[in-house]
Design brief:
Elements (H helix, E strand, L loop, with lengths): L1 E2 L6 E5 L2 E4 L6 E3 L5 E10 L8 E10 L9 E6 L2 E5 L9 E4 L6 E4 L4 E4 L2
Antiparallel strand pairs: 1-5, 2-5, 3-4, 3-11, 5-6, 6-10, 7-8, 8-9, 9-10
Length: about 120
């Protein structure tokens, strides 16, 4: 996981449905707890048939680790902690820069939704 671009994120919308793990039924976060933002991050693959790395540009941002219903956090790698499903350990589905304690990012394309997202 490597940050490519650290400009200010552009906020566009709140989540209106629950966000779930892409593999298992685990709930990552509840509706209205995340904000969709646009920023760039190079992330390693999480599916076998995906490219080794990809640039992800859409993320759900949560402002506290306590806002998650279910999330796993990896060891530190270059000031970044990877986020994964705490139940089935699929990931990375997101990231957190330890230098900013108020921003936790979940890749919008690496999760499932229920409700009105």
């Amino acid at each position: 996981l490597k940050q490519i671009h650290s400009s200010k994120a552009v906020v566009s919308t709140q989540s209106t449905g629950e966000i779930h793990c892409p593999r298992c039924p685990s709930k990552i976060c509840l509706a209205d707890t995340a904000t969709l933002v646009h920023c760039e991050m190079k992330m390693s693959r999480y599916k076998v048939d995906a490219p080794e790395e990809e640039v992800v540009t859409k993320f759900w941002m949560l402002t506290s680790l306590m806002a998650f219903e279910n999330i796993g956090v990896s060891h530190l790698v270059d000031n970044i902690k990877f986020l994964s499903c705490a139940d089935c350990e699929v990931g990375p589905i997101g990231w957190h820069d330890i230098n900013d304690k108020t921003k936790f990012y979940i890749a919008a394309e690496r999760v499932r939704y229920s409700g009105n997202n």
